Amino acid sequence: MTHNILCVTDLDGTFVKNSIQIHPEDLQAYEKLSAYSDFAIATGRSVKEITYIAERNHLNVVCAIGYNGAVVTEKDQVVFSKTLPPTDVDNLLKYLKEESITFDALDNQERVGNFNHEDKRRLWNMPILCMDNLYENVRQRCLYKFNLRPEADKAETYVPELKARFPNLEFYQSGSTRIEVTAKGVSKGSGLELLKRHYQPVVAFGDSGNDISMFEVADISYCMSHAPEVVKEVATYVVDNFADAVTHLENLLDL
Question: What PANTHER family does the database record attribute to this sequence (predicted)?
Answer without folding.
Answer: HAD SUPERFAMILY HYDROLASE-LIKE, TYPE 3, PHOSPHOSERINE PHOSPHATASE
